[in-house]
Amino acid sequence: MATLLYRLGRFSFRNRGRVAAVWLLLLALVGVAAALFLGPSSDKFSMPGTESQRALDSLEREFPQASGAVGTIVIAAPEGGKLDPAVVAPVVREAAAVPGVVAAIDPFQARALSPDGRYALVQVQFKDNVDDITDAQREAYLKAGAAATGIQVEHGGEVLRAAPEVGGSEAIGVLIAAIVLIVTFGSLVAAGMTLLNALVGVGVGMAGLYALSGVVELTSVTPVLALMLGLAVGIDYSLFITSRYRQFLADGLEREEAAGRATGTAGSAVVFAGATVVIALAGLFVAGIPFLTVMGLAAAGTVAVAVLVAVTLLPAILAYAGPRVLPRKQRDGQAVAREGFGYTWGRLVSRLRVPILLVGIVGLGVLALPVQDLRLALPDAGTAAPGTPGRAAYDLTSEGFGEGFNARLIAVVSAKDAAAVNAAAGQAAGLIQQVPGVLAVAPPQPNATGTTALLAIIPKEGPTAASTEDAVHAIRAKVATIAGAEISVTGATAVGIDVSDKLAEAMPVYLLLVVGLSVLLLMLVFRSILVPLKAALGFLLTIGSTFGITVAIFQQGHLAGLFGVEVPGPLVSFLPILLIGILFGLAMDYEVFLVSRMREDFVHGDTARQATINGMGHNARVVTAAALIMTSVFGGFVFMDDPIIKSMGFALALGVLVDAFVVRMTLVPAVMAMLGRAAWWLPKTLDRVLPDLDVEGERLSHHLATSSPPVPERIG
């Protein structure tokens, strides 16, 4: 592997013009394809095989007029007053006139009034589902009743769901990353070159993703996740190779040779680090949830592009940069080599390994304690930013009717004939009304043929309340005893519960697949059993403490205001499995970068302890910079209003900090110092069976020692 990448690095360096032209041409082509084939994003969380999905499919077949997007207009009279039908009627007419609306139901006819007569709900049924609602329709919907005087009118419902906007706050992370690069390299050229290389990779990856959006359904979060990861790993991978290139230059190597060796050694670590991330993300398919599979594959694609850019385009850019990639003092020959903080830290950790391990493990264990209270749900308008239309409608509905009206459920009753439907619906309504946590059940609404009927169910509490979740399970258990009809429960709350349940079932399989494959990959890289196991156990500490702190802030509300969390509540259902996949891949990144250098020095003759110290000495600075960059990129998304992206950005930024600084740069060298030579033990049988990938470049060194020296090429 190292020899192959060495040749690739030299080829790219020597043919810098053609390599750069190919990437720029590719960027232009996928950019044009993205503009031509861009498709709409979706917020549809379809889950084949779940009860809520079966109910939605049945609605689309048997009750199409009730399967489209739904909006709810909340109207309130001044305090102490009552609503007048003559004042409400114009709002209903304007809502009914919105393009694509099938019906807007007068609250006085539907008896959708609060007991005191001050509040009313206007149900607005659209023909198309939420993914097909246009921005023009949303604007027209928001204008319905906007000019009314003497009453308060707020617009809510799923029809207002739209893709989060990207392009502002995340730039803060990129700016901080640029500053970290400048400080790390001491050269504007090196920093700008590294950032440019990463941005080209992100551009190609994102444009390719948008080009596929016309044929592949993307959720609104998918491009944000791909952008988040593409930027973070793109900068980090370029940083590692550039750092090794500068080190080889400092050792006196000619530039083309330095580029080849940097790509062969650090590039090998980048390839395998990227492979662990890709495995972790692609492995999300085991959950069996289409939108999650697409998210994982999209993010994996951007990471794969980042790896390709790092080992091909970066050497070409290094050729263009020339000696300016070095700080001015080194270019002038004034720099004096000295040991950095990494060596000091490595010696300290090696000497105090036992107390450091105890403090680190206990401390991370304590931080993980809030995980016991972890609750999951899909986001709703109650977690939206204050001042948004959906949040205003949610609050006004809760004020006038109770939070349960924001968590309405639908029981779909289907049978062969109308008589069977009526009998089953009546029996179901009676049973459901007896369920604790249910406030009311509306009379059945049959379709035109009478073969399907809907029962609207109002819980007592909000969509994310534990009592509402219990009520859904209890309702399903009770209606399952009714013979002669098929009854299934759906609605946004039920969908969220089914997502959480399905993800919980998939989690053990996912962990086994991802951790198993990655441990095997690390075994190939490091020729060791204990090093991969240590890496996996360290990740458990990372993920436990990360979840604990995230739950404490986003769910329990501790320090919530500091991070812009207006309404603490359950974490989004797919955050745990997504976070585990991404963080495991990134954790293995730092494991590969640090330990591959330890392995390299050990193979080349250093003692196990000295190799550990050398690995920290050579890579502590660059891993610190990489972790700060990745944290900055992820942290930039915390400033977004969307609660899903905010929590995802926070958890990823925190996880990187914990894993890089506490686990990889503290606990890992402590364990390596404790294990000594045993860390590199591999049974002879496995040693013969496993292919030698030569990540540490031992065969490359032999190849260079036995081959004729390359002829330097004058650049610039």
Explain what you see.
Helices cover 62% and strands 8% of the residues. It contains 24 helices and eleven strands. A hairpin with a 5-residue loop joins strand 8 (445-446) and strand 9. Helix 20 (575-603) packs antiparallel against helix 21. The model is unreliable at 711-716 (pLDDT under 50).
In summary, what is this structure?
The protein is built from 24 helices and eleven strands. It has 716 residues and is of the alpha+beta class. The protein folds into four domains: 1-43 and 165-332, Up-down Bundle (Multidrug efflux transporter AcrB transmembrane fold); 62-160, Alpha-Beta Plaits (2-Layer Sandwich); 339-384 and 506-697, Up-down Bundle (Multidrug efflux transporter AcrB transmembrane fold); 409-490, Alpha-Beta Plaits.
